[in-house]
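EI: anyone free to look at a 925-residue chain?
SC: sure, send it
EI:
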Amino acid sequence: MKFIIFISITLLVVQLISGCSTKKNDTLNVHPVKLKVGEGFVNPLGYYEKEPRFSWKLPSIDSGSLTQSAYQIQLATSLKQLRFSPDKWDSGKIVSSSTSWVTYKGHPLRSREKVFWRVRVWDQLGEMSEWSPTQTIEMGLLQNSDWVAKWIGAATTDTHLAPSQEVLATPQYFRKPFTISSEIQKARLYVTAKGVFKVFINGEDVSKADVLTPGWTPYQQRIETLTYDVTRQLNLYENVISSSIAGGWYSGRVAGLLDTDHKQSPRLLAQLEITYVDGSKEVIASDGTWKATQEGPIRFASNYDGERYDQNYEMPGWKTPSYNDGSWSKVITEDVLQSIHLRPKRHLPVREIETLNPVSVTQTKPGTAVFDFGQNMVGVPSLSLPVTKGKQVAIRYAEALHKGEFYTENYRSAHSTDYYLPVKSGVINYKPTFTFHGYRYVEVSGFDETKIPNANWISANVQHSDIELYKNFTSSNAKLNKLFENINWGLKSNFFDIPLDCPQRDERLGWTGDANAFVTPSLYMSDSYGFWSAWLKSLREEQTVDGFVPLYIPYVKWIDWTSSGWGDAATILPWELYTMTGDVKILEDSYASMKAWVEYHKSEAKGYVSHMKTFGDWLQPYPEAEGKGANRGDTDFSLISTAFFARSVEMTAKTAKELNKVRDYKALSVLHAKITKAFRDTFFDSGLNVTKGKSTQTAYLLSLAYNLIPENERPQAQEKLIALLEASDMHLRTGFLGTPLLAETLQNAGRSDLVYELIFKETYPSWFYSINNGATTTWERWNSYSSEDGFNPQGMNSLNHYAYGTISKWFYEGILGIKPAKPGFKEITIAPQITTKLDFVEGSYPTPQGEVKVSWSKEKSSLKLKVVIPNNSTAKIIIPVGYKLDDAKSAVSKPISNSLNLLPGNYQFHFIADSSIKGSKHFAS
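SC: here you go
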């Protein structure tokens, strides 16, 4: 059979190559699209950045604008000014191909200021586009001096009265009536809390779907503020602003440290600024004229322990102007301190994103039922429930059933139960306000026993940080698709204002080691750059003057040491974020922090061998050690610490080079060479056998992935790694540190076939093992749970951890083959790893320039590959191993070696199996 090679290239690509054009004038009838500010904001309200960064994309390939040769940005304080005479900034024509992270260089932007902006571009032929549609930026309050409001609290929470934990755990309610007698032009509410808040104008929830705002930052250094447009909520004449607050992360405990629970007094800060049509302004600020009470229906609220609601305390109409608050007390006030920065929120808050309904209902006994939602998730339920007067309803949560029984022991000390006490019989409607839960199952007890439970009684409100999930991978294998879905759910569940390790038990912390593993996969899967950038700022704030980085961010005193492989987030995250986005500002902001962490590493090293404490290869399967020590795996701790010492120095050196810090780059390069030599000499003998600790997969993975083995010895180290895999029946033996390195290291060794074998393993330890045992998310342990035996008796059994979701990175960089050849994907490498285990794969990634798409499918001995290269990019296609391109009738040049260089466009390739390679062990079978 003769195989015909068909390569379809858009007419426009051919025009570009030949220098031809079909345009008849000097202005394109298209314009830039997808305009964004900073890390992905669109028309932001309450923006945080004094010098915004602008990004856009070129129009579709069909427009003919394949590359950008220049751009022009204009900003103005009005649409008229923007059109005729931009009064904030006119960049003029800037010769540049940059479409991302263009920094504002105009007149200073001030707090509250609203500006209008637009951009136009010139294409590869020098032809100018139309102006983009106009976008807006409205600044938040950028400095503490913008606040005239004071922190307020209920009088019962005055710290001078030494309030009890019970008092501090009881939510506070606030009211401030006011009158408006003129027509309003606009109104903005600036608001935050030491704790978490809900806020209302004339009974309407102005924060809508927002959950547990303002979120979690290092409260003693920075508290984020939010801005809401409340123009339409205000009435002529009588109005009221009202709010409720709870302790949230601000005063809640960490882990089992009950003695720290509710020891701080939550506070509210609110500033309503009204601009009238006549130009006059009025400020309604939180101050001593507000009133407060703690006699509201929410009697207790805790992130870990749930919420207690008592209908006896309901205050009908308390959010409306007509309510009589005569029994309420004057608030106490506290000044805004200059030492704690009040700054606009840097990323979108947690929100209610979707709703799930139960897939089954089981009545376990009279008045008790278990609802199964079929999906492990995070959020709170909404209940419409028949109740009996005076009989308390309890709502408990579980991730899985243990041998058929409702099970909460893996939540440890987190009580994770909501209570509702009804004042009368009938149907109640209830949704918890100031807590969140990780769960799949909900047990409801105490409802009216005369009623038969049904699925309409409850729904699940899924909550997570408001980031877009791309859902950009699919294949011909159902379990692989299920794994991708599970990883997505793990991402959603743990991106809860900060990157949590788990969302259900008494932990829920921003562990740095988990972040190192998952930062890049999450960027392939979601629009999460702003989320990570904001958390990295918190890391820099928590870092001490000697460079020490806590194990989790934000830091609350619990574990007071740091760990290699964890604290290295200070260097790994900035570099990974830069690689994926091309935003050099993340390096500029982080460079001092990166250098400080390297200095801390140096202080823990002798002879360039690090002795920093470490959690080790956390939860490695089949450890030789027993007890708690088994959790840290078998890889020598100093080997791990020295490897990460080298890695952090390497990332910092690369950053110094990017920032043109020549002296630092040279010094760091010398340091890196010394650490590398010490690593090789200390931990391996002349035959590359491990000389300290056990010979583990992770020991060789660190050596290879971090380039700590001389080039001439890499093949031998690869063979040692593969031999260890073979000795384990081709199962992984890696924990939190080794697993992220497996796929890429094996691919670099030419053994993508082994990556597929690892992914497609059905038995423990493997990704499919969890799926075979009912997983709907990724787990903390490889064997946290089994359908037959229930939860693993060893403990540490979170069923919603994202760390092992790191394999999704290889879905993009391996299976699809998409990788950045330069930071920000301006140049793209596409090297799909083909296997007999899959017939079809399709996926994409929205790079800063536009969406790159790859799909491949196999028919007998042929392979069809479809690729879309976005505008303003170039790509190199690496011809898949085991195949060759017959270019006899090709419309493009012959391959250079094993690759094809491509310009923007739509391409379709047909390949035929290369019999001279097919039998090779490197063919992905």
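EI: The mean pLDDT is 94.
SC: 👍
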